[in-house]
Amino acid sequence: MADFCVKLLDETTWPQFARLVERHNGVWGGCWCMAFHPRGMERATSAEQNRSEKERRVQEGHAHAVLVYDGTTCIGWCQFGPMEELPRIKNLRAYREGLATLPDWRITCFFVDKSYRGKGVACVALDGAMQEIARLGGGTVESYPDEVEGRSVAAFLHNGTVPMFERQGFKRTRRLGKNRWVVAKVLAPNRGSADTEPSG
Question: Whose CA is closest to 129, among 112, 147, 144, 109?
Fold first, then answer.
């Protein structure tokens, strides 16, 4: 992981992010990492429309993500954001049933290039996201990873895994479906440098 570095998704890094998405068929058939934004994945929405909407959100500062790079190539990301930016999650009905208070931030998904899976890219992305959330003021951070112990799972889980979050100090708060947990951590603010080069 020593050669990996992280950068924020913005207008300057959009081209590298877009190339990664395009290499993987728009991600899950054309999502373009739009599923958790307010509009979500409408049935009538094409991959090109999702791409355009994602780019618009990035240009307007309404899409947060940490991108992981190997040299000049974007190889993965972690999407995060405040509640109004990412109001949608999987298992939403079950989530609402046990809801006490809403978090300040959500971490909703990860994606890693097929050639780099199993090499710690998601861990680097999560660490970068936590540093950026702290820089932006901190608060309660919540995510919804999969429990993997004792299970045969796919090669890649876009929610991340419970152990990965626990290594970052997250605690399980309640179950969300059969194999998913709500995990949370209160993050103190750290308004230092936003420079997130190199990681690992």
Answer: 109
pLDDT in tens, 17-45: 999 999 999 997 899 999 999 977 666 68
Query: Torsions phi, psi of 23, nearest 5?
Result: -65, -20
What is the tally of structural domains in the chain?
1
Domain at 45, CATH number: 3.40.630.30
Please give the model's pTM, rounded to 2 decimal places.
Answer: 0.90
**The three-state (H, E, C) secondary structure of 38-62, written as one string:** CCCCCCCCCHHHHHHHHHHHHHHCC
Residues 6 or more apart whose Cβ sits within 8 Å of residue 170: 141, 143, 183, 184, 185
